Amino acid sequence: MGDKVKIQEIAAEAGMSNSELLNKAKELGFNVKVAGSSVTLDQAAMLMDYAMTGRWPAGLPKPGEKAEAPKEEKAEAKAPQEAKSPEAAERVESTESEVTPEKSEPAKSEEAKEAKEAAAKEEPAPEAPAPKKPATVRKGITAVAKKSEEEQETPQPRRAPLRKRGITIVKKAKPAPSREKKISLTDVSPSASSRKKKKKVPAEAKSTGEKLEILGERDLGGSVELFEEQEVVLLDFSDKTIFEEQQRQEERRRAEAKRRAAQGIGGMPQRNFPNRPGGRGGRRGGKKRRYYKQQESTEKVSVVRIPEDVRVYEFAEKVGRSVGEVVKVLFSLGTMVTKNDFLDKDSIEILAEEFDVQVETINPLDALDYVAAYDAEPNTVEEPRPPVITVMGHVDHGKTSLLDYIRSTKVAEKEAGGITQHVGAYQVEKDGKKITFIDTPGHAAFTEMRARGAQATDIAVIVVAADDGVMPQTKESISHAQAAGVPIIIAITKIDKPTANIDNVKSQLAEAGILPVEWGGDYETVGVSAVTGEGIDDLLETILLQAEMMELTADPTRRAKAIVIESSVEKGFGPVANVIIKNGTLHVGDNVIVGTTFGRVRTLILDDGSRAKEIGPSTPAGVVGLHEVPSAGEVMVAMENEKEARELAEKRKEYARAKELSKSTKVSIDELGALIAEGKIKKLPLVVKADVQGSLEAIKSALAELKNEEVQVEVIHGGVGGITESDVLLADASENAIILGFNVRPTGAVKKKAQDLGVEIKTYSIIYDLIDDVKALLSGLMSPVITEEVTGQAEVRETFTVAKVGTIAGCMVTEGVIERNAGARLIRNGVVVYTSKISSLKRFTEDAKEVRAGFECGIMLENFNDIKVGDVIETFKEVEEQATL
Ligand SMILES: Nc1nc2c(ncn2[C@@H]2O[C@H](COP(=O)(O)OP(=O)(O)OP(=O)(O)O)[C@@H](O)[C@H]2O)c(=O)[nH]1
């Protein structure tokens, strides 16, 4: 179907005469008569191989002989060639780990498949790796298969694991009109093959030796890196940080390009220029070429797989465009980007359309997603675990009282004397069964945290005060729980109050879509009092019942996975993450990763202040031993060893940092306009320090809302922990920055430093005081509101025109005072005709400073002479008023 190559083309490629090649073709039994006769791509590949090596193509039955695996010695015979150049050596190494059977599949002819199958029969499930081109593929496979047989090689991994390790580009070069089945060697990024390292890929490494054998079968000269399907694997996260790796890739690409240019292979390395035919533009010089089918060659587009977070220059490189072109397209659409900026999804889509390439985005963080990796491993046992509860509800509806009551009953039962440690959650026991309660901060500014709380939560208890009913935050809490797919139990609180009206609460709940069970709905409601303790046992029982229905289980035998509910820096401990174990068991000594930080568990503090050696599912604890303070909502996972945890955390951190940096440089044109006019834009730079992550987030989100068009709050740094000298230095470096501390205070030395540098530090213990102060500060920064106050009025009785001076109006002051230089409006028939100011005010012939009501005067208006008798001159002054938010 058009996949034909003429004998003469192959001859030229092989550096042979047409007749020589024709004979070879005939020897192989191909139906060819003249140099213009065509053969299929598979045949071409075989022919080329045969012509160059004299070896009978594997899989092609010799006359009177069955398809057989090639001889072992072939591998050796070719071996020296592999070492031709360091690049080649590198490619060998790299290809070992990335060649997969799938890649070779499309290029195989029927015979090749048969050969493979024949070889495969010798070993069960031999997902034998294969190189890129049919001729060698066949040999490679058989060689591997033979070896496998001897060494009981385990099945080779398929391509899937490779994906995890980086980015894959499938380039489908635009076909040339007549050569659409051929791809120039140089269409494939030459550095591609060298981008992979076999290191750290144990599953694949197993096959190393065998794969070398395959390569031993191949002529590496100029064609080794040509992948079947032109697969190029980039960015190996398992080895280095993506950024370093990208740099290296770029260097390799350049080096390879140079080498190729020097060798005259295939001309300049083309990247995937969509409009350029992937033809055989290069010289052949006797170099052996490989013919193969490109599986989806009918597709005219290029499919480029790129990370979701791709930078402009990376994108440009991957689609074969210049950075300038990419920037230009985006600029024309109103987005200013620099070369290092990350592109968002929309931009990628637009660019792909513009450049006529198909782009598939993949998330590079997938490779760093330790949580997904953990979740991918199945539990081996499932044991029941206690439910984790979050109490939510409207302000003052009794969340804290309820939690305190439950906690205090438990403490009493334990007859504990020690100080209860705040670990963000606590466990109680009811009828021998445990329940974990998360201490949610009960304030509106913590809405965000509540939403997160629901994620760590199995069941949400939503409190509604019996004397107040369903309020806005009640509904908000319901939405959070529902959004998180968490079952809801309603605790109707304060039932001891005389004003309590439980039925009223229930009907309001029903209106809000929460129909109580006793009314035929799905929601359990329990009346409770944190004063008398009434209903509390009922509530706990209801929780346990709900939990039972949910069949909550975990595998305590696994490595731990925990959710950070809050974190802080504690004296004597350093960073402490308060977590609840979701699965597995966390032990002292475990190496953990959490977000972008890591550490070794030094101490596990339980909710009663005692220490534990290990904690199981649903247990809350303070984890000591992390290097930094993680954010609430992040997931902690125990890793195999310290190295693994550290490397992963570092990569994630680097990635997050680079992304953050990039974001900050992105400006849209609209914003740019604003920035240009910005001489006037006022910012209030703040350094915010708080005792716990939760408060910090709450403050930050409250501050983010405090802006209008004129003034912006800019938290230049927000952190958990005390106010330090570096905070002071940071504030000092930014104009007008101040430091706000929440439940933290500066030490003497820091205070002094701040005084010396003139940096203001304000500390608070109530969030709303802090917010109010910031509001006041912002108001101070806002432009004053200017209002006008009318100061006087005068009627024009006569007019005099004085040459070279202008018109003087003879007036009678009717109201207030007319002052010289005051702002003035000329009003005619009730309409303001002109607004300027009094340029001259005279009493008789004398200049006057002011003329009061009842007196006559001469008035001249600045730049205005068309004054008529009967006009009114009104004077005014501007009054500045401080604006408030
Ligand atoms: N009579 C009575 N008063 C209660 C009960 N529960 C709470 N209160 C009172 O209601 C008020 C608010 O209770 P909190 O527990 O602080 O309410 P909250 O929902 O935690 O409030 P925030 O933390 O501000 O959101 C306090 O004055 C409590 O004493 C109850 O069951 N009965």
Q: Which features does this protein show?
A:
single chain; 885 residues; alpha+beta; Arc Repressor Mutant, subunit A; Rossmann fold; 6-stranded mixed beta sheet; 6-stranded antiparallel beta barrel; binds guanosine-5'-triphosphate; TIF_IF2_dom3_sf; Translation initiation factor IF-2; initiation factor; nucleotide-binding
Can you tell me about this structure?
This is Translation initiation factor IF-2. Residues 63-124, 201-210 have a biased composition (Basic and acidic residues). Keywords: Cytoplasm, GTP-binding, Initiation factor, Nucleotide-binding, Protein biosynthesis. GO terms for molecular function: GTP binding; GTPase activity; translation initiation factor activity. Residues 160-174, 281-292 have a biased composition (Basic residues). The chain has 885 residues and is of the alpha+beta class. Among the domains are: 4-53, no CATH class; 303-364, Arc Repressor Mutant, subunit A (Orthogonal Bundle), CATH 1.10.10; 372-622, Rossmann fold, CATH 3.40.50.300; 677-780, Translation initiation factor IF- 2, domain 3 (Rossmann fold, 3-Layer(aba) Sandwich), CATH 3.40.50; 784-882, Translation factors (Elongation Factor Tu (Ef-tu), domain 3), CATH 2.40.30.10. 34% of the residues lie in helices and 25% in strands. The chain is built from 27 helices and 39 strands. It has a 6-stranded mixed beta sheet, with helices on both faces. α20 links the parallel β15 (488-493) and β16. The model is unreliable at 66-243, 260-301, 412-418, 442-454 and 663-681 (pLDDT under 50).
